[in-house]
C-alpha cells in the first residue's frame, strides 16, 4: 500500500504566550499542578516554556517545555503536553510517599498481618517528568490518534536533547477521584496535618513546598489506620488515565511503588535510555520532497528553528532513501509546511 500526504491538518509546536487562551481551555479538563486552570499561572508556565526553548534559562535542569497540538483546519488547540527537565532542587524538592509492606507476626496469638505503609521522602536531584497531557474530549478517539502524537513528541524532544535530561523519566498518573475532585487520601491524611483543602494544597505546592516538610509527619503512616476509601486509591490508576498507563507500560515504564503524597496517584518510572520511543528517535537529513505516493510507514517529523516558536512537528509518511544513510524522502506538502530544503536536519520518530 502506498499513499501521500495531500495536506497537513495537524501540527505540534512549541507553545507560546499567544496560546494562553487555548491552553487555558484545555487546562479546564485536567486542572493539575502542572497545568492548572488558572490564567495567571498558565501565563507563567508559557513564559517559562518559551525561555526554555530559546535557552534563555541557562541551566537545562530548570527548563520546562510545553507542546501544543493544533487543528489547522479548525484553527484551535486540541492537545497539549509537557516535559519538566528535573524534579527536585534545593528550592523545590521532589516529594513523595514510598509504598511498602511491613509484615507482623505474633507466635502467642498465631496472628499474621501485612500492613501497607507510606513513608514520606524528599529528593533534590530527581528524575525528568513528563506531564500536562491533555487531549480535547472531542478528538480523543479520532482516527489520527492525536493523543499518541502529543504524548510521543515529548520523547522525541528528550532523545534529541538527551544531555539536558535526567537518566530516569517519571510519569505521575491521576488516581480515582470523586466527581467534585475530592481526594480520599488527602481527606484522610493531608488535610489533618495542614488544614488545607486538596485544591488549596495542590495550588500552593506549585509555588512553595515548605509547608509539606514543615507540617507532614516524618514517621511512617500505616494505611490500615485510614478509611477504606482512602486505602483503595493508593497507587491505583483512575479511569481517566488508564489509556496513558497502557501506553507507558508498552514503551518501558513500570509502577515504582511510589505515589503522590496528596492524592495517592501512582508514579511510573523508566530509564531514559531504555524508553522505546527514545531509542527509536533518529536524526536524519532531507534528501528531497516528492509528490509521488510513499510507502505506508508514518512518522512524527520534527524540525527546530532559530525563531519562534522554535519547534514544529507533523505526522507524515516517509521513506528512507537508498541513496545515502540517514537521508529521507518526504511528501512535498510536509516539506513546505516545515520549511524544509534538501540537506536540512530533522528528527524522525516512527509511529506504531
From TrEMBL:
Entry keyword set: Acyltransferase, Arginine metabolism, Transferase
GO molecular function annotation: arginine N-succinyltransferase activity
SUPFAM superfamilies: Acyl-CoA N-acyltransferases (Nat)
GO biological process terms on file: L-arginine catabolic process
Alphabetized InterPro entries for the sequence: Acyl_CoA_acyltransferase, Arg_succinylTrfase_AstA/AruG
Coiled coil: none
Alphabetized Pfam families for the sequence: AstA
Top-level taxonomic group: Bacteria
Cross-referenced PANTHER family: ARGININE N-SUCCINYLTRANSFERASE (PTHR30420:SF1), N-SUCCINYLARGININE DIHYDROLASE (PTHR30420)
Protein name according to UniProt: Arginine N-succinyltransferase
Organism: Sandaracinus amylolyticus
Amino acid at each position: 500500500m502506498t499513499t501521500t500526504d495531500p495536506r497537513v491538518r495537524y501540527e505540534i509546536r512549541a507553545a507560546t504566550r499567544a496560546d494562553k487562551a487555548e491552553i487555558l481551555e484545555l487546562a479546564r479538563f485536567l486542572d493539575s499542578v502542572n497545568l492548572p486552570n488558572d490564567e495567571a499561572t498558565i501565563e507563567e508556565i508559557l513564559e517559562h516554556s518559551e525561555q526554555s526553548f530559546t535557552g534563555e534559562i541557562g541551566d537545562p535542569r530548570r527548563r520546562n517545555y510545553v507542546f501544543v497540538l493544533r487543528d489547522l483546519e479548525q484553527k484551535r488547540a486540541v492537545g497539549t503536553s509537557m516535559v519538566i527537565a528535573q524534579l527536585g532542587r534545593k528550592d523545590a524538592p521532589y516529594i513523595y510517599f514510598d509504598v511498602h509492606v511491613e509484615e507482623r507476626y505474633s507466635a502467642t496469638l498465631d496472628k499474621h498481618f501485612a500492613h501497607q505503609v507510606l513513608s514520606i521522602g524528599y529528593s533534590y536531584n530527581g528524575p525528568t517528568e513528563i506531564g500536562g497531557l491533555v487531549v480535547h474530549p472531542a478528538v480523543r478517539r479520532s482516527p489520527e490518534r492525536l493523543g499518541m502524537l502529543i504524548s510521543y513528541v515529548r520523547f522525541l524532544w528528550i532523545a534529541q536533547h538527551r544531555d539536558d535530561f535526567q537518566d530516569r523519566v517519571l510519569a505521575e498518573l491521576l488516581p480515582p477521584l470523586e466527581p467534585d475532585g475530592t481526594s480520599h487520601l488527602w481527606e484522610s491524611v493531608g488535610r489533618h496535618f495542614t488544614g488545607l483543602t486538596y485544591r488549596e494544597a495542590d495550588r500552593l505546592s506549585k509555588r512553595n513546598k515548605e509547608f509539606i516538610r514543615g507540617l507532614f509527619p516524618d514517621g511512617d503512616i500505616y494505611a490500615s489506620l485510614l478509611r477504606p476509601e482512602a486505602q483503595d486509591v493508593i497507587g491505583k490508576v483512575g479511569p481517566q488515565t488508564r489509556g496513558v498507563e497502557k501506553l507507558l507500560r508498552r514503551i518501558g515504564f513500570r509502577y515504582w511503588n511510589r505515589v503522590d503524597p496528596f492524592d495517592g496517584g501512582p508514579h511510573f518510572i523508566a530509564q531514559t535510555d531504555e524508553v522505546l520511543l527514545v531509542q527509536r528517535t533518529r536524526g536524519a537529513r532531507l534528501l528531497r520532497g516528492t509528490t509521488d505516493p510513499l510507502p505506508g510507514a508514518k512518522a512524527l517529523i520534527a524540525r527546530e528553528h532559530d525563531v519562534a516558536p522554535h519547534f514544529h512537528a507533523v505526522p507524515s509518511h516517509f521513506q528512507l532513501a537508498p541513496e545515502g544513510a540517514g537521508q529521507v524522502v518526504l511528501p512535498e506538502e510536509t516539506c513546505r509546511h516545515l520549511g524544509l530544503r534538501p540537506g536540512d536536519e530533522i528528527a524522525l520518530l516512527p509511529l506504531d
